[in-house]
Amino acid sequence: MRTAALTLALPALASAAKCKPYVDSESLQELITIEDLLAGSQKLQDIADAHEGNRAFGGGGHNATVDWLVEELEKLDYFDVYKQPFTEAFAGSKATLTVAGAAVDARPMTFTPAGDVTGAALINVPNLGCEEADYPAEVSGAVALISRGTCNFAVKATLAKTAGAVAAIVYNNAEGALSGTLGEQSDAYAPAVGITQAEGLAFVEKLAAGEEITLDLNVISIIEDRVNYNVIAETRGGDHDNVLMIGGHSDSVFAGPGINDDGSGTVGVLTVAKALTNFEVKNAVRLGFWGAEEYGKLGSYFYVKQLNGSEEEVSKIRAYLNFDMIASPNPKLAIYDGDGSAFNFSGPAGSDVIEKDYEEFFESKGLGHVPTEFNGRSDYAAFIENGIPSGGLFTGAEGLKTEEEAKLFGGEVGVAYDVNYHLIGDDITNLDNDAYLVNTQAIAHSVAKYAMSWETIPPVSQKKRRYAADVARHLKRAAELTGHSHDGPCGGGSHF
């Protein structure tokens, strides 16, 4: 009798052992460690090192990143995981510029043709280079130096080639580095790169004083169609009609490994996903690791477009949270301006609540925070255009840290939040561990909150989605205005 009773008790004990508690913020945060985050970042570095130093979409480095994400998620036995393929044009380039033996930071324009120039003269082009008459005869066989402004970069690159220039260097008309796009592939362009305003004006001053400047410029460019992948994973448990979606992009630029941009967001989301497996959820949690963000947020737009075949599927996503660059080496702790109080553009109803929740999180830890604009430069764009409440975190890109921000967060005034933004130096050494950890804890906090209740977030409705066209126009204008000369996550360069 005693043996029989023990035998009957075993299934009940096994069932109890499998039972998990519902997730809560403190418990989930406790499972997040900097050691796990750095181990994930090192894995991405190893992948890049094995694939020509980058994880650009459709290449071996990004494909290996996708395979690693799928493997890590599938072995958790907690999510349903799938790879979503799509095909897009890839344009990758690298540039090296040397003037008088000194290296100058030159950033190739997207869709620039390749070129290799040795010992060429640098000739200043007056009047912004938007008319054929702006180009002096001396430009033929030389490199044209052109100011940013008025006309787009494609016009400048085309007119430079028409005038016989072997390359075009465009200098910024504002502080910061200049990364732009020519818009599309064309044989009409001269090889084109961007440099800072300070470098450009220094060259202009020397040329005006009669000094001759010669330079070497090498531009490597690859333009081809590539198959790319989003990785989507959703908890098997929870209400699949009321889903929290979180994400970040899994690709890097062609120029470097992208360990902060956006390896930090990728690893942060994955680390929280692993910790979540210790708990039950009431609302399903969906993960999106987006491909081809660096080329215009292509993966996230493709994903949402597929949902648009069904109004019901869009409405199931109760909120989207975006994490793009959460460990910049000279960081700020920035929260997307969901209520529009800082930048006069609010996200869909509920975005204000998300912003407030993150503000309260940082304040609970005695930390400051600042708002960052919904300017269309990261993967939240496709979601807010479809009326889905959105939010997220960001630690800064090429913008310069202000004195006020240095008082709040420490770091160096007048220095970029990430001096290696979109460069080869965005490697495993390019991370601020404190920002990395606290931002990932913030991800855990929001996942725990919304995986349990949507009490404070209104449902997505057709009425809220009617303003999508207005939102799309705003984001397009904001992206064109900010381009890459002001701070914001990535997602394609400015045309102007």
UniProtKB/TrEMBL annotation:
<keyword id="KW-0964">Secreted</keyword>
<feature type="domain" description="Peptidase M28">
    <location>
        <begin position="230"/>
        <end position="445"/>
    </location>
</feature>
<keyword id="KW-0862">Zinc</keyword>
<feature type="signal peptide">
    <location>
        <begin position="1"/>
        <end position="16"/>
    </location>
</feature>
<dbReference type="Pfam" id="PF02225">
    <property type="entry name" value="PA"/>
</dbReference>
<protein>
    <recommendedName>
        <fullName>Peptide hydrolase</fullName>
        <ecNumber>3.4.-.-</ecNumber>
    </recommendedName>
</protein>
<dbReference type="GO" id="GO:0006508">
    <property type="term" value="P:proteolysis"/>
</dbReference>
<dbReference type="InterPro" id="IPR003137">
    <property type="entry name" value="PA_domain"/>
</dbReference>
<comment type="subunit">
    <text>Monomer.</text>
</comment>
<dbReference type="Pfam" id="PF04389">
    <property type="entry name" value="Peptidase_M28"/>
</dbReference>
<dbReference type="GO" id="GO:0008235">
    <property type="term" value="F:metalloexopeptidase activity"/>
</dbReference>
<keyword id="KW-0645">Protease</keyword>
<keyword id="KW-0378">Hydrolase</keyword>
<comment type="similarity">
    <text>Belongs to the peptidase M28 family. M28A subfamily.</text>
</comment>
<dbReference type="InterPro" id="IPR007484">
    <property type="entry name" value="Peptidase_M28"/>
</dbReference>
<keyword id="KW-0479">Metal-binding</keyword>
<feature type="domain" description="PA">
    <location>
        <begin position="120"/>
        <end position="202"/>
    </location>
</feature>
<keyword id="KW-0325">Glycoprotein</keyword>
<keyword id="KW-0732">Signal</keyword>
<dbReference type="InterPro" id="IPR045175">
    <property type="entry name" value="M28_fam"/>
</dbReference>
<dbReference type="GO" id="GO:0046872">
    <property type="term" value="F:metal ion binding"/>
</dbReference>
<dbReference type="GO" id="GO:0004177">
    <property type="term" value="F:aminopeptidase activity"/>
</dbReference>
<dbReference type="InterPro" id="IPR041756">
    <property type="entry name" value="M28_SGAP-like"/>
</dbReference>
<dbReference type="InterPro" id="IPR046450">
    <property type="entry name" value="PA_dom_sf"/>
</dbReference>
<keyword id="KW-0482">Metalloprotease</keyword>
<dbReference type="GO" id="GO:0005576">
    <property type="term" value="C:extracellular region"/>
</dbReference>
<keyword id="KW-0031">Aminopeptidase</keyword>
